[in-house]
Specification:
It is built from nine helices and eleven strands. By secondary structure, it is α/β, with parallel strands linked by helices. A hairpin with a 2-residue loop joins β8 and β9. Bound molecules: adenosine-5'-triphosphate (ATP) and magnesium ion.
């Protein structure tokens, strides 16, 4: 049995470095976070990198139309339209779901999704392929309790088909009960995006929360999305008080010692 782990580059080179080279091949990685934080853009990187390496790719879009995904990709200089025409990329449109289109879903249904993915993969043939599903949450919108079961089903059924997969799941405070938890336990890895306002400016962050079989970086990284380039890691985020706070009993002892020493000053 081969024990060396083959890794798949994400397309964001700094992120690959933090992952000891990339995502272990055939993993299912959940990408979660609040709206507008960079999930879709990371998935586009992942697909663009696959195309660059000559791998066949499938992108499932439930939040935006196929056209919208192609336009967003073009802003980072990735020509998805040509890749589709050359049979290297399939974008399954699950938003507009044009019924005459062989690459669309008729219903937002996990079984139909998996069937469609396998049908395309059969055409692609053997060899490693990349699969991006953006987002999984859409498939259990009206039945959040099914999140875990559906995620498990997808992972299990697609397992023999030699994909490395990135799935997004939306996560917001108001919807935390409905989304997020289904995927996260079945996923082999979790990349979480976050955002905050600091110095009057929106800042975005990323942290690798989980990656099985990987000695990965544990920092929260500030990121930027740059026109024409895509996602860049800038620096490890400045530690926040909440992150570094010591237990209250320890803190009060330190405070007391400080007061004493200040009193002793001449
Ligand atoms: N060409 C561009 N140049 C710079 N920034 C861009 C560009 N295109 C998009 N962005 C930024 O990226 C953000 C969208 O990121 P993305 O679509 O990856 O978010 P998301 O996490 O997928 O959000 P959602 O959960 O709503 O789908 C935009 O709000 C914008 O700030
Ligand atoms: Mg998105």
């Amino acid at each position: 049995m081969e024990l060396k782990i083959e890794r798949v580059p994400t397309g964001v080179s700094e992120l690959d470095r933090l992952l000891s080279g990339g995502i272990p091949k055939n993993f299912v990685v959940a990408v979660t976070g609040e709206p507008g934080t960079g999930k879709t853009i990371l998935l586009l990187h992942f697909i663009a990198k696959g195309l660059e390496l000559g791998e066949k790719c499938i992108y499932v879009t439930t939040e935006e139309s196929r056209e919208s995904i192609m336009r967003q990709a073009a802003q980072f200089k990735w020509d998805f339209r040509s890749a589709i025409e050359e049979g290297k990329l399939a974008i399954i449109d699950a938003l507009l779901r044009p019924s005459e289109d062989e690459f669309s879903l008729k219903h937002l249904d996990v079984e139909e999704l998996v069937e469609k993915v396998i049908q395309i993969k059969r055409k692609f043939g053997y060899g490693h392929s990349r699969l991006a599903i953006d987002s999984m949450s859409a498939f259990w919108l009206d039945k959040p309790a099914m999140a875990r079961k559906y995620s498990y089903f997808i992972k299990k059924v697609l397992n023999p088909w030699n994909f490395t997969t990135m799935l997004t799941s939306q996560y917001a405070i108001t919807t935390s009960e409905a989304f997020g938890f289904g995927i996260e336990h079945i996923a082999d890895g979790i990349i979480r995006f976050r955002r905050s306002i600091r110095g009057g400016k929106l800042r975005r962050y990323l942290v690798i929360e989980k990656m099985r079989q990987t000695p990965h970086d544990l920092h929260l990284w500030e990121i930027e999305i740059i026109d024409g380039i895509g996602l860049k890691l800038i620096r490890p985020a400045i530690e926040r008080v909440e992150d570094i706070a010591l237990p209250y009993s320890v803190r009060s002892k330190i405070e007391e010692a400080k007061r004493k020493s200040e009193k002793e000053l001449p």
